[in-house]
Amino acid sequence: MPSDTSGSCLCGASAYSYTDEPVMRALCYCTPCRKVSGGTNTVTFAVPEEKFTVTKGQPKSYAVNHEYGMTLIMFFCPDCGTTLWMEATAPQFKGLKLIQAGTLTNAKKLNDKVDAEFYVLERASWLVPIENAAQSKEFEAGVINDSLLLRQYGQGGSICWWLGCGYYHISQDESHNYAYDAAAAVIAGGRPFSLFESRRWRYFFTRNKPGWKPPSRAAITRILPDFYQELYDEVFKRITSSEWFNIIFDASDNVSGHRIVNISVQLPDGPAFYWKTFDTGDEQHTAENWVKLIWGEMQQLCGGDLSRINSICTDTENTMRSVHGLLGRFPELSHINFSLGDSHGLQLLIKDILLLPFFEDLIITRWGSQYNSFFSLLRSRDLARDWSIRKDVRDELRSQDCPVLLPEAVRIIKDNSFWLKLETAIAVLKPVNEFQHASEAYGAGITHVVNGWLQIKSKWSEMGEADQFPDIPSDDIDAIFKARLDKQTVFARVQEYLQKQLKNDDEYHRALSEFTHFRMRTGGPDSLFNKHSAVYDDGFKPAMAWQCLLNQGSILARVAVKAFIFMNDRVLDRLKDQEYAHKKRWADLEEKDWLELEDSYLISRVICERARQEGLDGWCDGLHQWRF
């Protein structure tokens, strides 16, 4: 028979009893508890409500909002005012009567072991922590679930938790699996390791998985190496089991002037995996040094079989162009297509155009911001003109303290020819800017790239036919376009015919393997893909080039090449079998697309900035390279 324990108020008008032992004994130093007790803290015995009975009187209640975010309800004698028990709405207190132990009839019950102390930061300085009692800053769900509100009955690694509202069986293995999955979500999502330590997260988990404690930042740190190794093994397996792949090298300088290199690997089915980031240190950024670096990475990725590498994509800088030439001299690499980043190439086209005398006096802008700067300035034209004729501006122009640049600024604002040139520049740069964004949004392959460039040329031709901007130096722009396109891609000569012959995307997969092996057989300085071959002669027609291919690859000639490289596409977000969903123009994006893109961007920025600023040892001790 379970024994009964009783208690009552000071005057004896109200009384209660409960059976069995409390599931928790605790002290609490929070503000409401101090005021209820009239001292430094309350002493509380937590009892399941079905084991609790009011045996005498009709206690009244009073509710107050607690700083923890719950409602605390006190039950007291209406005659003498003694608080007998409390109830709380937080999930971890569901179904429990929080008996005030000072009202127990048998004072010896107060000698029983205390399980925990809450709000310990508010404990009086002359009080000391109780030995072996859990110390909690608030009503931490993890602390309560582990050893306080819950009674442990299980054996052999299986834990049975009693919560007043039922039993919850959580094995040790299940608990570890939950912790691992939660830690993996934090790590892969780029979230802070302390995420689950917030009160709201603890509240959420306690409601949805009673009896389980979410991992702390220390636990997540311990899980990080295992999760890293799991992802590394999966990605490396995918790469090494692929028939062929493309490699993307992207580099930039950090605040110390060191070159930080990001390496991604593109597989035939679309996903681009982030592979490694490393700091080149003080090593000179010469083409020869880059060749050594790239050669070593290629050997590791392909296991010595260089024929599996289909293409290498790099930045557009001159050093990288030299790297392409040096690597192309190796017989083992004669089949490889060397390409330049499309977005970089379009930006260089903008730079070249703005160097023309017609545009050079417009505005000094930062790399990558020309079009937006011009467009923003044009939108401000009317406001700028209104400002230039204000009385205070005219007075300042006549004053002796007139700023040096003010007269020139006012002159330019009033100069109609300046605004006409600005409108012209915007009209010329607009198609380039649009396809630069489209290239990034589509993860453009080679055929997308060339088609985008040719559509830019087509839009310029339409502008010329409309004669909207007669002063545009069209011949100079055409020459710049041709020179930049020849540097940017090797497929300009066949693209026109290719566009007419494309049927559908389904044939792409059948053609891909044939195309790869075809290029291996015909690579080298005399191949059709070399810029010095007959295919690249200005007088050589695209149809003739395609006829050459028709004799050697029927599927390839019919379908052509859809893509070599999807530029660094959703790098870390593609570690699982997920469909590549974002293939829309920026203007067509819906709200859900923007939210997905924002998450991907934040993840990439966290990784990129962390790698640039902290080098090799930023996240995980003992990992000498940044890899996934």
UniProtKB/TrEMBL annotation:
Q: Can you give the residue ranges of the CENP-V/GFA domain?
A: 5-120
Q: Identify its protein family.
A: Belongs to the Gfa family.
Q: Which PROSITE patterns match?
A: CENP_V_GFA
Stored SUPFAM superfamilies: Mss4-like (SSF51316), Ribonuclease H-like (SSF53098)
This entry's Gene Ontology molecular function terms read: carbon-sulfur lyase activity; metal ion binding
Source domain of life: Eukaryota
Q: Can the keyword Lyase be found in this entry's annotation?
A: yes
Keyword Zinc-finger listed: no
- Keywords, A to Z? Lyase, Metal-binding, Zinc
- Xref: Pfam families: GFA
What protein name is recorded for this chain?
Answer: Transposase
